[in-house]
Amino acid sequence: MIFDYIYAKFLGNFPIQFNKCIRNCRFQYKYKMSEIKIEFAVEMHGDSCVEIVRKSLEGMGLVDIDRKQGRVIVHTVEPWSRIQEKIENTGRKAVLAGFGGQSAVSIINKTGSDVDRTSIQGVVRFTAITNDQAGVVVDGVIDGLTPGLHGMHVHEMGDISGGCDTVGAHYNPRNSPHGAPHDEPNQRHAGDLGNIRADETGRATFRFVDSILEVWDVIGRSVVITQQPDDFGKGCNEQSSIDGNSGER
């Protein structure tokens, strides 16, 4: 592909209790996350493999391993990508199988169609901070990007039948102008998540708080990564006020 882009449908959410936010201010949350259950599919042969995997996850939380089912479940406050890395450092492939918790998960992969083809793959998760206060923790890992900054946005529709051309505009229930993640709600699209940075290997790893979105806002919508960085609506042309001049999807 000439341009880097990804999109995915949100899969759903699961109820769980969360600790309340311990402090918040206008542009930043300081929060305490409760544990979340993360499940990985891991091929293990024999009890020695189980012990190796278990040892690799020491300090990560409560670990439950079912060797026959090839299942590793971790109750943790750590990002899922860190748990995956710990397991894969043992020489075993760890495939993310699912999350517990009040969250929405976007799986980014190949479409399998001729409409849009991409080698970009990854997972983005939106997790509620509290049950009674707006805001989500956004964390994820995406591979296959070109090094540098790329815009990331929630789009209004989850229809990927036509690739990125059918996901609609940025999610914008307040009919606000395009802006930056730290802008006031009436000065940014709800789907404006700013930029993520891919390293020299093409991997972007990120974890941040968005104070406007809620988990149920994103169910059934889509996530798009763009070729260029987002200028947050600060450019001098009309396109800047639409998508931050972030380029092709």
Structure description:
This protein is mainly β and 249 residues long. The chain has two domains: 36-99, Alpha-Beta Plaits (2-Layer Sandwich), CATH 3.30.70; 102-243, Immunoglobulin-like. 11% of the residues lie in helices and 31% in strands. The protein is built from four helices and 13 strands. It has helices at 47-56, 80-88, 215-218, 240-243; strands at 23-24, 29-30, 36-42, 62-66, 71-76, 94-99, 103-108, 121-128, 136-143, 148-155, 192-198, 204-210, 222-225. It has a four-stranded antiparallel beta sheet, covered by helices on one side.
SSE topology sketch:
Layout: E1 23-24, E2 29-30, E3 36-42, H1 47-56, E4 62-66, E5 71-76, H2 80-88, E6 94-99, E7 103-108, E8 121-128, E9 136-143, E10 148-155, E11 192-198, E12 204-210, H3 215-218, E13 222-225, H4 240-243
Antiparallel strand pairs: 1-2, 3-5, 3-6, 4-5, 7-8, 8-9, 9-12, 10-11, 10-13
Give me a quick take on this structure.
The protein has two domains: 36-99, Alpha-Beta Plaits, CATH 3.30.70.100; 102-243, Immunoglobulin-like.
Low-confidence stretches: 1-33
Distance between the termini: 11 Å
SSE pattern, N- to C-terminal: EEEHEEHEEEEEEEHEH
- The outline comes out as elongated
CATH homologous superfamily caption of the largest domain: Superoxide dismutase, copper/zinc binding domain
Query: Whole-number radius of gyration?
Result: 19 Å
> What fraction, in percent, of the residue positions are helical?
10-25%
Spatial order of strands in the largest sheet: 4-5-3-6
The average pLDDT score comes to 79
The profile of the biggest β sheet is: 4 strands, antiparallel
Helix segment tally: 4
How many structural domains in the coordinates? 2
CATH topology title of the largest domain:
Immunoglobulin-like
Helix/strand structural class:
mainly beta
